[in-house]
Design goal:
Layout (H helix, E strand, L loop, with lengths): L1 H17 L2 E3 L2 E8 L5 H15 L3 E7 L2 H13 L6 E4 L19 H14 L11 E14 H7 L10 H15 L3 E5 L3 H10 L15 H15 L5 H5 L10 H5 L3 E7 L3 H8 L5 E3 L13 E8 L6 H12 L1 H11 L6 H6 L7 H13 L5 H8 L4 H15 L5 H18 L3
Parallel strand pairs: 2-3, 2-4, 6-7
Antiparallel strand pairs: 1-2, 4-9, 5-7, 5-8, 5-9
Length: 424
């Protein structure tokens, strides 16, 4: 079975690397896509409808693992290969490979008016006015809670302005009363870590706009390492994997092993489909620190890539997906928060269970609490310099390879070296 999967993936990768082709029947464009839930499946359905209205274009959506997007796609693009469109999360970091579709779309004002904030994430600084892709998934980081465990423990749930320390106290009490192995878990991700860091006063940037590890970042880092060491969190989530590899903690939450799980709005569909009625889960507002109560915006964008041989057709497909009715349908079927101002104002009808609908409403409410720094770090083209190295160094502190102070000192050097290597 493993060999079959490897062969299938190899064929898919070869097809993606071959890119677009132009045949007697018209242009063929390929979309390299990963999905948290059903995003690629929905994109395939919309692509079929697009093909029905555009007989000269064939759209092939290749669904790949997320690791292929983060590790293999940059290598392919660096070699001048890869797909025509890709669904990416390193929004600004891959900008040098993006195609500006402005000359090929019907109404650039429609894009600027409705997707302005997310368009900026794809650009190379304030002077860049290009339109490079469509935010297909706006996300907000935030926690999920196993409410059933709180009810069983008869522990009052902290309120909407509760601090992280208050949540730690409450979830530890619940874990003890219900014999749940752990109180909390956070995804193994520097992006997820950034929300609590900003809440604890991390500014992330100095006056020159350079990344820094300041007192706020150090404060939450030390708390986080200690929570892993004292059993508040399962050490295997961050400490069980080397380097900067991503690992979520969904399985731990799904199996009732943790009380609170810090992840984000993209997990709602998995919560609904995989947990169902096994226990009552809810999304709660981001806990507070001394400075804020913020998560991090983000998500995925379908970006046009320079290496395409069919720029007009690529732009036409993305333009189609940006139309209000089509985009609203995409958000409804994928159960995501709309990045479009017009679609958000009109509202999206979610045909989901009450728990999912309530969770979506909670995350929408978090948008107004996002700090300017949260938007800034998400759009910063070198944000992976801090996101990835945070994971590596704090993991080393968690497993005892070095002290937290040494890990933070190394982290600061790692960031400087990464930024320098990128030619900043």
């Amino acid at each position: 079975m493993k060999n079959t999967h490897r062969f299938t993936f190899a064929v898919a990768a070869l097809a993606i690397a071959s890119g677009a082709s132009t045949t007697a029947l018209g242009a063929e464009i390929r979309v390299m896509c990963y999905q948290d839930g059903n995003e690629c499946d929905v994109t395939k359905d919309l692509a079929k409808r697009f093909e029905g209205e555009n007989k000269d274009v064939t759209v092939i959506v290749d669904t790949v693992p997320y690791k292929a997007i983060t590790e293999q796609l940059p290598v392919q693009l660096g070699a001048g290969e890869g797909p025509d469109i890709a669904r990416v999360t390193d929004l600004g970091g891959l900008n040098r490979f993006y195609l500006d579709i402005t000359p090929y779309i019907k109404d650039a004002k429609h894009w600027e008016t409705n997707f302005g904030k997310s368009l900026a994430w794809l650009r190379n600084g304030a002077a860049d006015k290009g339109i490079y892709g469509l935010q297909s998934q706006l996300t907000i980081t935030g926690p999920f809670v196993n409410k059933t465990l709180f009810d069983q423990a008869k522990v009052p749930m902290p309120g909407p302005k509760a601090t992280w320390d208050e949540w730690v106290t409450a979830t530890k009490a619940v874990a003890k009363a219900t014999q749940t192995p752990f109180a909390m878990a956070w995804d193994r991700s520097g992006h997820r870590f950034a929300g609590p860091a900003i809440s604890y006063g991390a500014k992330l940037f100095d006056s020159k706009g350079d990344l820094i590890i300041d007192d706020g970042y150090k404060l939450i880092s030390k708390k986080f390492v200690e929570w892993n060491k004292d059993g508040t969190m399962p050490k295997e989530v961050w400490g069980g994997t080397g380097g900067s590899s991503y690992r979520d903690a969904f399985e731990e939450f799904k199996n009732g092993r943790i009380v609170l799980y810090l992840s984000g709005s993209w997990q709602i569909r998995r919560m609904e489909s995989q947990i169902g009625k096994n226990f009552e889960w809810i999304a709660v507002p981001n806990p507070c620190g001394p400075a804020a109560c913020t998560g991090i915006p983000g998500g995925a964008a379908l970006v046009a890539l320079k290496r395409t041989k069919s720029p007009k057709e690529v732009a036409r497909f993305l333009d189609y997906l940006s139309q209000d009715a089509v985009y609203s349908e995409m958000m409804s079927k994928t159960e995501n928060i709309p990045a479009s101002v017009a679609v958000a104002a009109k509202g999206v009808t979610y045909n989901v269970a009450p728990a999912a609908k309530t969770a979506l409403t909670t995350f929408v409410g978090e948008v107004s609490k996002l700090t300017p720094t949260a938007y800034q770090i998400q759009g910063y083209k070198l944000n992976r310099a801090i996101f990835l190295n945070t994971v590596t160094r704090l993991s080393q502190a968690i497993v005892g390879e070095m002290s937290t102070d040494d890990a933070l000192a190394r982290l600061s050097k790692d960031i400087d070296e990464a930024v320098k290597a990128a030619g900043k």
